[in-house]
Design brief:
- By secondary structure, this protein is an alpha+beta fold.
- The protein folds into four domains: 6-116, CBS-domain, CATH 3.10.580; 135-249, CBS-domain (Roll); 257-384, Beta-Lactamase; 400-562, Reverse transcriptase/Diguanylate cyclase domain (Alpha-Beta Plaits).
- The chain is 39% helix and 24% strand.
- The protein has a five-stranded antiparallel sheet with strand order 14-13-17-16-15, sandwiched between helices.
- Helix 2 (52-60) crosses helix 7.
- The chain is globular.
């Protein structure tokens, strides 16, 4: 690959937004400008990034694009590079981090541009390719496809599940169309997400024979502005697909190979001088470590900074000392696999111990090398703590009711099925409460929804204070709540229900009427209780507890009714 600088090929036109902007603004801006990402800026500095793939993941989690703000779902921190780094290093960073673009910043970390896989591939020369390798050698053989009559959400689900950037539309083994991330972003922006695949797909599909070499395939993709190329056999049947990510991964300038070549048959002194102070390592965004016979033999400044250790505190120490106890076995298994084959590479996600005792989530890519004449493992570390936090926040948004902080109805049904299966498998008791706020509509009509929301939130707090850690409380919908109580028989469940009922009745609210008059109000709840029977299914279990709650309301409210 040519050793030009990023400054010579990067784009200086970057689409940016502020963290407070809503997701739909990002989708519309990406569609209008025909780009694959927006960079989130604070004071001209990149603080996050949102890509087409992120949008698809968000859609799969049913997050409202018109309410959710960028700051809650953007990927952060941003991997940024200087415009003075070599093009191969940028390509390597993309491969190692699984990225299709990198943000370019100046010395003060202000954004000045962006570099994509397309920019790199467009500028490749012939000698960047490995012996004109055939496309067939690197293509993905697993074909993920849909039918023209399928709805777009099915295509989105397949892309999320398989971590892919496109799905083919196939009829009789022949490609008739393709749906890409760009197409989906466009559909979302134009509010036609429910359309059939056939109405949105791109066609005809560009194809190439399996014997085409990587260089020619790359040029074909660039000339036709393609992100992926469908590979067919002599009969025109689909046999695979090649993406720009596949091409980048197979270039000569492989990050790990560069490091391995630097280490091969060199003395420790030469390693210190060539590795420790070489730009590739010294200024690398990845932490780098060499492990030999379980001991740390080299660690670069980036990793030391991430973990806040001095070099002497890590060198010649057992690597397992820096891992959480429950994750040590996974690393050992990985190291053993590497010991069996020099060419085995595997990515792990493990928590590495920060010097202050906190766990730092790291993505670790390892390969076997020779170090001072003996087998060793070269590992690169990337801090993914922020990504993990973002994933956790996305999960929280999906399973949590925003108002009360309790789990939501969607998650209730997921957990109900799991608890029923566990109960049947282990023959353990399972009980449920269904709770309804008495006369809640009248309260809302008199005091307004703002006061009503406060009542809902307060009752959510009361539920959390009156159940165990293994119990799960849910906002079931409207003014209804549910509580799942594993390992609990009906007698104990009634006690819990009565405790909740009394706690709600004892609470005093001070709402204002719609015309501004203060008031003092107490609220009550009606609670249905039942225990799971071995002959029950989900439907019969829920129907019985619903009947119990209905009887509690019909019998005068503010009471607990149990049905066997």
């Amino acid at each position: 690959m040519d050793l030009g600088k990023i400054s010579s090929i990067m784009s200086r036109d970057v689409i940016t937004l502020e963290p407070k902007e809503i997701l739909m603004s990002a989708v519309e801006k990406m569609n209008f400008n025909n780009v694959g990402c927006v960079v989130v800026l604070e004071d001209k500095k990149p603080t996050g990034i949102l890509t087409e793939r992120d949008i698809i993941q968000i859609i799969g989690h049913n997050i409202d694009l018109n309410v959710t703000r960028l700051v809650s779902v953007m990927k952060s921190p941003v991997i940024a590079i200087s415009e003075e780094i070599d093009i191969p290093e940028a390509a390597n960073l993309m491969v190692i981090n699984g990225l299709r673009r990198l943000v370019v910043v100046d010395g003060e970390h202000n954004i000045i541009g962006i570099i994509t896989q397309t920019d790199i591939i467009k500028n490749l020369s012939i000698d960047s390719f490995i012996s004109f390798k055939k496309v067939e050698q690197i293509m993905k053989r697993k074909i993920i496809s849909v039918d023209k009559k399928d709805i777009l959400p099915k295509a989105i689900e397949l892309m999320i599940k398989n971590h892919i950037s496109c799905v083919l539309v196939i009829e009789d083994d022949k490609p008739v169309g393709i749906i890409t991330e760009r197409d989906i972003t466009k559909s979302i922006a134009e509010y036609n997400i429910s359309n059939n695949v056939g109405e949105i797909m791109n066609f005809p599909v560009f194809t190439a024979n399996k014997d085409i070499n990587l260089y020619d395939a790359t040029k074909l993709m660039e000339e036709n502005k393609l992100r992926s190329l469908v590979i067919v056999n002599s009969e025109g049947d689909v046999i695979g697909i090649v993406t720009k990510s596949d091409i980048i991964k197979n270039l000569r300038a492989d990050y790990v190979e560069l490091l391995k070549n630097m280490l091969k048959e060199k003395s420790r002194a030469l390693i210190e001088s060539e590795i420790k102070y070489r730009t590739l390592v010294e200024q690398s965004l990845e932490g780098i470590m060499i492990i030999q016979e379980g001991l740390i033999k080299f660690v670069n400044p980036t990793l030391l900074k991430i973990l806040s250790y001095e070099e002497k505190e890590m060198l010649d120490r057992d690597i397992l000392r820096f891992l959480y106890p429950d994750e040590r076995q996974l690393l050992l298994e990985n190291l053993n696999k590497l010991g069996n084959s020099e060419h085995v590479e595997s990515a792990l996600e493990l928590r590495i111990m920060h010097k202050n005792g906190e766990g730092i989530y790291m993505e670790i890519l390892s390969t076997q090398i020779q170090y001072e004449g003996k087998p060793a493992v070269l590992a690169t570390f990337r801090d993914i703590t922020e990504r993990k936090n973002t994933e956790a926040e996305l999960k929280r948004l999906v399973i949590t009711d925003d108002l009360t902080g309790l789990f939501n109805q969607r998650y209730f049904y997921i957990q109900l099925v799991k608890e029923i299966e566990r109960t049947k498998r282990h023959n353990r008791p399972l009980s449920i409460l269904l709770i309804d706020i008495d006369m809640f509509k009248d309260f809302n009509d008199k005091y307004g929804h703002l006061e009503g929301d406060y009542v809902l939130k307060k009752i959510g707090e009361i539920l959390m204070k009156n159940v165990r850690e293994i119990d799960m409380a849910f906002r079931f919908g409207g003014e209804e709540f549910a509580v799942l109580l594993p390992d609990t028989k009906h007698d104990d469940t009634i006690i819990v229900a009565e405790r909740i009922r009394k706690a709600v009745a004892a609470n005093v609210f001070y709402p204002f009427t719609l015309d501004g008059q203060p008031d003092i109000v107490s609220k009550t709840v009606s609670i249905g209780v039942t225990e799971f029977h071995i002959e029950d299914n989900k439907k019969s279990f829920l129907k019985r507890v619903d009947n119990a709650m209905y009887q509690a309301k019909k019998s005068g409210r503010n009471m607990v009714i149990h049905l066997i």
